[in-house]
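note to self — DONT lose this again. spent like an hour looking for the file last time. sequence + predicted structure for the chain T wanted, 146 res
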Amino acid sequence: MEREEEALRFVIDTNILIGALVKDNSFKCRLIKNRNFRFFFPDYGLFEIEKFREYICQKRERSSCPPYDYAIKFLLESVTIVPRELYKDQIPSACAEMAEIDPKDTPFLALALHLECSLWSDDIHLKRQSLVHCYSTSEIADLGRN
């Protein structure tokens, strides 16, 4: 019996989820819903997204999309939210690596280290860290075509 091909695993940065929330059926949204991938998100990121709620809602209202609460629930069905308790052992390494780059991205890197997987972010500065590979949206799209 053939073994099912394992889905590619990524920790998603907040900018990816915000982009997917702003526009339903966007390319980012379709990638998140693609079953060829498994996505993870640190629980800390939910607080980050909440800071942008008003901005996201304004953008969504302009395009007559379903309400924000529906959209985030729909997206997060395809994302595993991971509590800090599970990846806290990697916080010191991630913190040291991100200190000069962007300390607020420490939880994303720590989770990627814990899961031994890559990051998905369109923030160029995350490519400066050297502990895990960081893919942009276009690089993820290329992986999905292969």
